[in-house]
């Protein structure tokens, strides 16, 4: 395959294997060596977590940008266009530069394969290499990097962060990370580097014990949400959003507003603020409340309890594991007391449907299941039926959406959830956008 334009660049990326049989950093290390080790000499904040990492990345980048820095951002998956995954100051990588980066990587991979025919990099390793080289070429001041899965063997874990952040630890990706919270926490603790600060969210005790021990062993200062810092809701904003107060040992910041809903976003904001303030202290930069307020107000994030219609109220939320669904149900109960809740749900087949469907069934007056579009990992009607044969299923999501909207009043609430892949398709449907393959 020869990369000549945007479509062939995407095709090259997506033609790489999704996973490799051996979990290590050797392949990404060899590729980055061939590219001149672009990850070196850059500043990074590294963020992992079962849930909340995307929101924390967005808040931290907005705070850093408000401070006047040139900030890279690396996240996954994308909602509308692939380029969203790699951005500088909220501007996605331009098509021409994505093509140039992929051409460079294609050339180096071919050279490495000539020396070792068994050499192959995964799709995510390829994207990671694009990101590191692009941020190096553009000379960003700092980049905020979201881990793909886990941390220890994630291809982003070749960097040395200014700060390592662990937002949450829950049961997800057990086939890759292990069956227990302790095993999963061990993978996430893999991003901690010696003597570099660590900021963590409110974690289950089993997970927190693992991370605390790792930080102690590596002499990495640890800040824990609820112990060393905290945020609490002061009011819900009439326009959509929340006001909060944040405090740690050195600061008490009041009347901060985020354009995001849910208690979990208050906790994400706490982690983001502690991370940002830790970075300011590292760089001997002053704390400015107006800068912080301005930065947080910019932190919108598609598909995270996002309102896309008023009458009826339609919410898109990317909750895709039991922990995420539990937080979603909690938010629904708090925000929409006494209102009829209609739910459209579509998930991937490797998720724990048995733990996700019962709480949704309890909170919804109508629950309709559908299939995540264009994804071989999508849960099938048979998988849904094995969990609960009483819940209605419509595999074709446009038909499912039409069906649920036909039976809804302007006072009802429609929540669409289960997968960011489903959210991406439905969000683009409502906004008239075309999704990248």
Automatic annotation (TrEMBL):
PROSITE patterns: FOLYLPOLYGLU_SYNT_1, FOLYLPOLYGLU_SYNT_2
InterPro entries xrefs: Folylpolyglutamate_synth, Folylpolyglutamate_synth_CS, Mur-like_cat_sf, Mur_ligase_C, Mur_ligase_C_dom_sf, Mur_ligase_cen
GO terms classed as biological process: folic acid biosynthetic process
Domain Mur ligase central: 47-273
Enzyme class, spelled out: ligase
Nucleotide-binding as UniProt keyword: yes
Alphabetical keyword list: ATP-binding, Folate biosynthesis, Ligase, Magnesium, Metal-binding, Nucleotide-binding
Gene3D superfamilies membership: Mur ligase, C-terminal domain, Mur-like, catalytic domain
Pathway in which this enzyme or protein is active: Cofactor biosynthesis; tetrahydrofolylpolyglutamate biosynthesis; Cofactor biosynthesis; tetrahydrofolate biosynthesis; 7,8-dihydrofolate from 2-amino-4-hydroxy-6-hydroxymethyl-7,8-dihydropteridine diphosphate and 4-aminobenzoate: step 2/2
Pfam families: Mur_ligase_C (PF02875), Mur_ligase_M (PF08245)
Domain Mur ligase C-terminal, first and last residues per copy: 303-419
One GO MF term attached to the UniProt entry: ATP binding
Record's catalysed reaction(s): (6S)-5,6,7,8-tetrahydrofolyl-(gamma-L-Glu)(n) + L-glutamate + ATP = (6S)-5,6,7,8-tetrahydrofolyl-(gamma-L-Glu)(n+1) + ADP + phosphate + H(+); 7,8-dihydropteroate + L-glutamate + ATP = 7,8-dihydrofolate + ADP + phosphate + H(+)
Cellular component aspect of the GO annotation: cytoplasm
Family of the protein in this entry: Belongs to the folylpolyglutamate synthase family.
Subunit details: Monomer.
Name of protein: Dihydrofolate synthase/folylpolyglutamate synthase
Protein species of origin: Latilactobacillus fuchuensis DSM 14340 = JCM 11249
């Amino acid at each position: 395959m020869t990369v000549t334009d945007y479509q062939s660049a995407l095709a090259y990326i997506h033609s790489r294997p999704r996973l490799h049989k051996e979990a290590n950093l050797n392949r990404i290390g060899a590729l980055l060596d061939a590219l001149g080790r672009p990850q070196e000499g850059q500043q990074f904040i590294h963020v992992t977590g079962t849930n909340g990492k995307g929101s924390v990345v967005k808040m931290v980048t907005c705070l850093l940008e408000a401070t006047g820095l040139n900030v890279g951002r690396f996240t996954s998956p994308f909602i509308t266009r692939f380029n969203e995954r790699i951005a500088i100051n909220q501007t996605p990588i331009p098509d021409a530069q994505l093509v140039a980066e992929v051409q460079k990587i294609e050339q180096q991979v071919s050279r490495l394969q000539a020396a070792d025919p068994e050499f192959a990099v995964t799709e995510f390793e390829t994207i990671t290499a694009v990101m590191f080289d692009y941020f190096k070429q553009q000379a960003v001041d700092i980049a905020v990097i979201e881990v793909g899965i886990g941390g220890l063997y994630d291809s982003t874990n070749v960097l040395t962060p200014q700060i390592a952040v662990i937002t949450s630890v829950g049961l997800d990706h057990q086939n890759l990370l292990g069956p227990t919270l302790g095993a999963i926490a061990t993978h996430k603790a893999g991003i901690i580097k010696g003597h570099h600060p660590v900021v963590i969210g409110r974690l289950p005790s089993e997970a927190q014990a693992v991370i605390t021990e790792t930080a102690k062993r590596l002499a990495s200062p640890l800040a824990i949400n609820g112990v060393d810092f905290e945020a609490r809701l002061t009011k819900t904003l009439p326009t959509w959003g929340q006001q909060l107060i944040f405090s740690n040992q050195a600061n008490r910041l009041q009347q901060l507003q985020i354009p995001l809903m849910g208690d979990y976003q208050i906790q994400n904001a706490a982690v983001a603020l502690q991370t940002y303030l830790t970075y300011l202290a590292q760089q001997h930069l002053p704390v400015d409340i107006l800068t912080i307020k301005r930065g947080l107000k910019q932190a919108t994030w598609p598909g995270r309890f996002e309102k896309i219609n008023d009458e009826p109220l339609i919410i898109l939320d990317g909750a895709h594991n039991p922990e995420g669904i539990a937080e979603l149900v909690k938010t629904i109960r708090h925000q929409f007391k006494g209102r009829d809740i209609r739910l459209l749900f579509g998930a991937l087949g490797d998720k724990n449907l048995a733990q996700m469907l019962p709480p949704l069934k309890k909170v919804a007056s109508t629950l309709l299941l559908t299939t995540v579009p264009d994804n071989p990992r999508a849960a099938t009607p048979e998988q849904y039926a094995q969990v609960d044969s009483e819940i209605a299923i419509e595999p074709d999501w446009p038909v499912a959406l039409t069906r649920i909207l036909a039976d809804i009043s302007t006072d009802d609430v429609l929540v669409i959830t289960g997968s960011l892949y489903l959210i991406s398709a439905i969000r683009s449907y409502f906004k008239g956008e075309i999704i990248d393959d």
